[in-house]
Amino acid sequence: MLKELWNDAEGGFHPASAPDFLPESALREVQLRRLRAVVSRAYENVELFRSRLNDRRLTPASIRSLEDIRELPFTIKADLRDTYPFGLFASPMTDVVRLHASSGTTGKPIVVAYTREDVEVWSEVMARTLACCSLHRGDIVQNAYGYGLFTGGLGAHYGAEALGATVIPISGGNTDRQIMLLRDFGATALCCTPSYFTHLVERAGELDVDLRELPLRVGVFGAEPWSDGMREHIEAQAGIKAFDIYGLSEIIGPGVASECSQHEGLHVFEDHFYPEIIDPETGEALPDGAEGELVLTTLSKRAMPMIRYRTRDITSIITEPCGCGRTVRRIRRIGRRSDDMIIIRGVNVYPSQVEAALLTVEGTLPHYQIILTRDQGLDQMTVEVEVTAEVFSDKVRALEEVRARIAQAIEHILGIRVALRLVAPRSIERSQGKAKRVIDRRAG
Ligand code: DLL
Known about the structure:
It contains eleven helices and 22 strands. The strands form five sheets. The chain has a nine-stranded mixed beta sheet, sandwiched between helices. The chain has a five-stranded antiparallel beta sheet with strand order 11-10-12-13-16. The chain has helices spanning 24-45, 47-55, 77-82, 116-132, 151-163, 175-185, 194-206, 228-238, 351-358, 389-393, 396-414, and strands at 96-102, 110-115, 140-143, 166-168, 189-192, 218-222, 241-248, 253-259, 266-268, 273-278, 285-286, 292-298, 309-315, 317-318, 330-331, 336-337, 342-344, 347-349, 364-375, 378-387, 419-423, 438-440. With 444 residues, the protein is of the alpha/beta class. The chain has two domains: 1-339, Rossmann fold (3-Layer(aba) Sandwich); 342-440, ANL, C-terminal domain (GMP Synthetase, Chain A, domain 3, 2-Layer Sandwich). Bound molecules: 5'-O-[hydroxy(phenylacetyl)phosphoryl]adenosine.
């Protein structure tokens, strides 16, 4: 136990990891102190938050215990849109040193801001994330998250530097070059989305590069849901340990939560981000262990505090002690969002279930898409999946066999039959960042 506290290759202690191991009482004290400060800050500086508190006849002084957080109003994505671009800032622009934005599905992006102190906190939580993923000083980190308005690139970059690792800021895309540098610079860790990594693995195969023979030992994957089946596939193909990291722009970017060596849920860096689980329908707080929507409060953000932000990500809080020795609570891996549910013939379906089903069938590749259409008022779903070249080029029989197995696997997990289209390798567009798994062609 506590082995991971010693993150430096030479046995040195990395102080950034310390809050992960705080005794519970000390942690709760820090949280309450910070909660009161952040509520005051938002109340004094953010009009929307002040008026919502006034409407409820609350003031920052109403927060006397951590449980009192439940009295506070939620913040939702529409609040960011309605106050676009800078309406939720709690700092004057002269104190804001960085803006990021998340593209969103339509229209204007969500804008987020950081003071110098916010960037420091972000670097710290990302250093703690990477430490959780077993990285330390001496590691060479190839950072293939996109640099730019997306938070992934710069977040991982600052975290790796804060940890004392060596960063290769290659950004996303240009896969042949990624593979060349993996060989030439000998990165020991790669940061990117899991879907981009499956693409990189595939391309390495085409170039006759065996990733298992390279020094690469760790993958730091996040920004989108990915299943345990995908993890097994990735780890076997590349000879690495794959870690899941979680975060969102509105809260800070990556650095909210991370898997550790145990791979049993993600530790939330809860001295900075206070987690709650609510019933997505009623908004009611749920006890630890129950599954529901994750709500996060930034306890130390200055430029843009978020109070009880509804993430729409579905998970549950794990309170049991973790084998790694960290005391901060964990959340289960996020497989779905409350807004990505599809209803097909009255059955609730999530894209992640389709992935789980496909990965159980040999002869399929982890490249797939779900196409939604509407026929006479009813939603229809077609799963398009790539099969291996051997299956695809074989006689009709092999294809039909694989089709039958996929149909069965999907029916087993989803409880319904869906239309299937088996396509040749490389037919489905590859992403450099987050994969677009669902193509929605339902008009209106
Ligand atoms: O994706 C931040 C990030 C960058 C996280 C790099 C991890 C690594 P956004 O673009 O704002 O920020 O998207 C946030 O992505 O609400 C989840 O729905 C989803 N998401 C992020 N990480 C995971 C994960 C970044 N590990 C949204 N598993 C979140 C499942 C994830 N979903």
